[in-house]
Amino acid sequence: MIKYTYLLLLCCFIVSACQDKTKVQPDDIMSLSLVKDSISADNIHNAEILAQVNMSTSAATRNIKFETNAGTFSNNTAQYTTTVSLDGKINAYLKHDKAGTATVKVTVNDLYSREIQVHFVSRTSPDSIITLEAVNNNQPADNYSYATVVVRSKDPDIINTSREVAFTTDKGLFSNGEKSYTTTTTIDGTATAYIKCSQPDLVIIKATIAAAFSRETQLRFIPAIPDYINVDVPGNLRNALDANTVVTALLTRTYGTASAGQRVTFTAQKPSGEVIGTFINEKVSNSNGEASANFWVQDTSYAGMILIKATVVDGTNIITGKNQLLITK
């Protein structure tokens, strides 16, 4: 009788243990991720597999085993066993000498397993994997107009579609308002980024696909000349030997802003067309589009209206703003 009771209790314990196991799923125990998802198949570079074990679960232990069907771990075998750190994190490193996909199986406590794939690619240059092209270059640096760069995956057998692409720039901002922009390739293996800039300059764009292969290209933003110039002068100026006033030219565009650093030429004329006075302390336009100069009448005998012009010349484009100033005795 005692023997049968013992067997009955043992069976209950085994059933209970099996039931306890089903209460917790592998996803509850750990998560797996890769630092890079494409590694050169040169038996030198390592894929880094990160396992995060949930130490708060009753099933979590210190034992963890990595196994692979291709390549070797840092111990030069296809199996690597270690213990989990206090924070539940553990890294394993896998290398391989042949292109292809390796499946890594990670097991905790010899009960709970998860798998992750590592892609090993032929030793090759980024040029044969990814292209980066500026398809909309020489845009005005008006902080509004976008230049365009396009990434193309050249070999879908090596870099599959729907891979993550990270764009970075040394100047300007992407369409998300940041200096970096991350997206995924479309089904045809392309990804597009848009960038704007507030200053004319040469901009370097870098694109990295699959966190492994990078290319760089350059974009040039040209000066954004104004569409309009508003000239601001005081209502009148009393003529005297030292008579002078500040004249301000505001450079504006229909869309965006005019580039800073533009030189504005100021002139003053009598109604007859005769030039009068001189401009000193000329300042190029600032980030607000304002350029200024001091107008000095010089001709103490003159009284009447004068026409002040502010002009920006860019090649064949001439943009002029005008206003009138009354010179009084």
Automatic annotation (TrEMBL):
Superkingdom per UniProt: Bacteria
KW Hydrolase (keyword) present: no
Protein name (record): Ig-like domain (Group 2)
Signal peptide residues on this chain, from the entry's feature table: 1-17
Entry-linked InterPro entries: Ig-like_fold (IPR013783), Invasin/intimin_cell_adhesion (IPR008964)
Keywords: Signal
PROSITE patterns: PROKAR_LIPOPROTEIN
Organism listed in the record: Chitinophaga hostae
